[in-house]
Design brief:
By secondary structure, this protein is of the alpha/beta class. The chain has one domain: 4-Layer Sandwich (Metallo-beta-lactamase, Chain A), CATH 3.60.15.10. The protein has 8 helices and 14 strands. The protein has a 6-stranded mixed sheet, covered by helices on one side. A 6-stranded mixed sheet has the order 7-8-9-10-13-14. Strands 11-12 form a two-stranded antiparallel ribbon. A hairpin with a 4-residue loop joins strand 2 and strand 3. Helix 5 runs antiparallel to helix 6. The structure holds zinc ion and fe (iii) ion.
């Protein structure tokens, strides 16, 4: 028995996750801007929500924390530096801390860049990382509060250290537009072309309203292994090599 991950579409293109320990029936909510769809899913699965987890303080990842915390009488986790701005925060976390969801354990990566209090939750045994708006499928989040060096550290050092099989549960369904950029940066990347095909097939089934989205149109999760091949930001460790290839091409 392991960790069940329910993808709940929220707002316009956000992913909220309900993660369930299949042994105990205990559950945690990750990044909830709306309470109603989360409550509906938890009720449908008949699970007990015991923790509210946020990757960062932006409203589209945390707005429903107080309402959910009250309903489930559950603590709210996030980076401790976000005390005062992350809605409902009760339990501040730091790099290397661990939390449990039933019998499943996550360790905390501190990955400031998109915001200065951004964290990721890594469930090593379940091959899953919840990385908010830092790493997206084929892209990365905007630098609202950090520097490019901090994003490099987050993507190419900390997240890149995870095994290839790790599933990447990110904060938004941005994959199609991210891939268009990836193809622009690396026009000859076969893995990018292949992923574009896969994503076009999935997105062709898209519901008119994201709230009605079902798993068969969701491009998330990819894996860390996928991202190593397609993500231009995660691949920036190879940037010198890429720059050389582009320079050669442009000179023709
Ligand atoms: Zn954000
Ligand atoms: Fe966001």
């Amino acid at each position: 028995m392991g960790l069940q991950v329910e993808r709940i579409p929220t707002l316009g293109d956000n992913y909220t996750y309900l993660i369930v320990c299949e042994d105990s029936g205990e559950a945690a909510v990750v990044d909830a801007p709306e309470a109603e769809p989360v409550i509906a899913r938890a009720d449908a699965l008949d699970v007990k929500v015991t923790k509210i987890l946020s990757t960062h303080h932006h409203y589209d990842h945390s707005q429903a924390n107080p309402e959910l915390a009250k309903r489930y009488d559950a603590p709210v986790y996030g980076h401790r530096s976000d005390d005062g701005r992350l809605p409902g925060l009760t339990n501040g976390l730091e790099e290397g801390d661990t939390i449990t969801v039933g019998r499943q354990q996550a360790r905390i990566l501190f990955i400031p860049a998109h915001t200065k209090g951004h964290i990721a939750y890594v469930f090593d045994d379940a091959d899953a990382v919840f990385c908010g708006d830092t790493l997206f499928a084929a892209g990365c989040g905007r630098l609202f509060e950090g520097t490019p060096e901090m994003m490099y550290e987050a993507l190419c050092v900390k997240l890149a250290a995870l095994p290839d099989a790790t599933r990447v549960f990110c904060g938004h369904e941005y994959t199609a537009s991210n891939l268009a950029f990836a193809a622009h940066v690396e026009p000859d990347n076969e893995a990018v072309k292949k992923m574009i095909g896969r994503v076009e097939t999935l997105r062709a089934k898209a519901a008119a309203d994201w709230h009605d989205a079902t798993p068969d149109e969701m491009t998330v999760p990819t894996t860390i292994g996928d991202e190593r091949e397609i993500n231009p930001f995660m691949r920036s460790a190879n940037a010198a090599e890429l720059g050389e290839r582009r320079a050669q091409k442009d000179s023709f």
